[in-house]
Amino acid sequence: MYKKFVTLLLKLLVKIYKNLEATIVELKHQLYFMDFEERDSDVFVVTYLKSGTTWMQVILYNLLTDGNMDFEHIYDVSPWPKNQSIKNEPVSKLNSMPSPRIMKSHDDYSFFSKEIKGKIIYVYRDGKDVAVSLYHHHKNYRDPNITFDENFEEFFTKEKAVMNWFKFNKEWLENKNNLPVLYVTYEQLKNNFEETVARIAHYLNINLTEGILNRIREHGSFEFMKEHESKFGLIPPVKENKVYNEFIRKGKTGEGNEYMNDNQIAFFKKKYIEYIKPFEHKL
Ligand code: A3P
Fold first, then answer.
1. Is 250 in the pocket of ligand 1 (CB under 6 A)?
2. Cα 223 to Cα 43: distance, rounded to the nearest angstrom
3. Counting atoms of ligand 1 from 1, which one is nearest the CA of 137?
């Protein structure tokens, strides 16, 4: 009885601590953005986790600059403001970056104000494949003992999760404030790369020459990104004993069906109809 009580109490304390930690991170992020100077040329890559964010950053970087890949890490040329705020870096660093700035964001819809100066590219990926990618990410970088089912439960079935895949995507697809968003899917990039890049170039008013397209093809290929993984993955040392060569992992579509059991697939289908289906025409 006593043991059970202590376990329960410990679980409760961990929960309170985690919630508090998340609230503080969010608050720091909001404060950081108060002094952020917006520009018309800004481009935000917004995604749910593991949906092809880094891939899109590389594509945009090669589309909007001369594509010099001689940087140490993609964040040097395409920052993740939330990461900078967590690391207590001053916003002046972001404000002094040359235009156009390509910024990564996993922020939910409400984080963006009703009017923004720049443009947003939202990358959507089949949630079943996100579930697999996220599971490997957490196994490699957070908890080596986590199971696929536990991870699925945390990010897909828990209504109150900080980041629930269905809610996050629904709000971004719904786009009730009419923010300037171009929707691109991971699957379109995989199956129809050139046409999708052309659509992105058109949205950003860039003349897509054969030279630029070749550069994007080369630097945006899975093989190139895998070979230069240290430029794209998590920056060590996040934690000891963590794997740093699995950020650019498989780059496939359809893995979700291999990992999910019948109940999970049925749950996914039901929620998909409720949350995503009404906005499917935007994808
Ligand atoms: P997998 O784990 O399924 O392989 P994010 O950048 O949002 O964290 O997304 C990571 C996912 O995008 C990983 O998926 C990664 O392998 C995949 N990815 C990264 N670069 C890619 C590329 N050039 N082509 C295809 N997939 C890529």
1. yes
2. 26
3. 2
Query: Is 133 a pocket residue for ligand 1 (Cβ < 6 Å)?
Result: yes
User: Does the C-beta of 249 come closer than 6 Å to ligand 1?
Assistant: yes
Alpha-carbon gap, residue 81 to 31, rounded angstroms: 12
Rounded CA gap, 17 and 186, in Å? 35
Residues 256, 43: Cα–Cα separation, whole Å: 30
Each residue's pLDDT, cut to its tens digit, for the chain (283 residues) gives: 677 777 777 777 777 776 777 777 778 888 888 888 999 999 999 999 999 999 999 999 999 999 999 999 999 999 999 888 888 888 999 999 999 999 999 999 999 888 889 999 999 999 999 999 999 999 988 888 999 999 999 999 987 777 899 999 999 999 999 999 999 999 999 999 999 999 999 999 999 999 999 999 999 999 999 999 989 987 666 556 666 778 999 999 999 999 999 999 999 999 999 999 999 999 9
Please report the atom of ligand 1 found closest to the CA of residue 129.
Answer: 3
